[in-house]
Design a protein that fits this description.
5-stranded antiparallel β-sheet; mainly beta; 1 helix; 5-stranded mixed β-sheet; Immunoglobulin-like; single chain; 291 residues; disordered N terminus
Amino acid sequence: MKTTLRFCALFMVIFSFVACNDDDGDSVSEFTVMSISPESGTVGTEIRITGTDFPSDASNISISFNGVSATVTSVTSTEIVTTVPSGAASGQIEISANGFTKLSASSFTVLSNLVTETISNLSAPQTGGQGEPVGGPFTKFSFETGAVTDSETDWDIAFRGTTIAVNGGTATGTNEEPTRNGNAGAAIQNGIFSDITSANGLSFDQDAAGSFAVPAGSGEGWYNYNPATFTVTPIPGRILVFRTHDGKFAKVEILSYYRDAPAEPDAFSDESRVYTFNYVYNPNEGETALE
């Protein structure tokens, strides 16, 4: 009986020694994963995984984002640096090393890239004016599709003459305005387009009885009117930030109110009520970054 017990004890010692050694006979430890930072990002975003007892050789580590392999760019005993691989999907990050496999405690969210576009020659005609009642349908635009739309619901902003409506709030009382059924809003900011980097913390107005979220009138909203030249020009440094009908965010810089965006528009020869504008749209739910 004593011989059997001694044999079992010896076997356990040998087993433990083998289990805690790699192929070269070096002692290895079971690593831990503590955190990932950031917890969301687009393809190519650098991700830092912190923990303990990571191997010093990056070739001994494999990482995947919901089944899609990623490259280890650097490693220390307490940190692995990698990037989000093309084709990655949201989910937990899997780390394998030293014969062990661990999952990140939190899920990683793969974000879509921001959309940066220029819209040229968006026509926004109107009827009436110059003392006559203004009318005509609004030209509706969707940031998601980046195009004019006839949809009754999936539109974000709409143009008619110098007026810009949002798909949020209530009817203003103007003729032939579109029906609002979303939660869009507008916030007017002053600054350089590239410096408006987030919609976080902004207060968004919606259309309401008697007023638009983007105020109408020269010097009030997005434009100035020059009575000497009869021209409409965008206010320099005036940026419009929009919450879309479905709660996402975009920023807009209007460049021109005339066809083909002439540098010095002529009210008598250049067709007006034709918008050119830059925009950046964040298609990710709950994300406010605009740069």
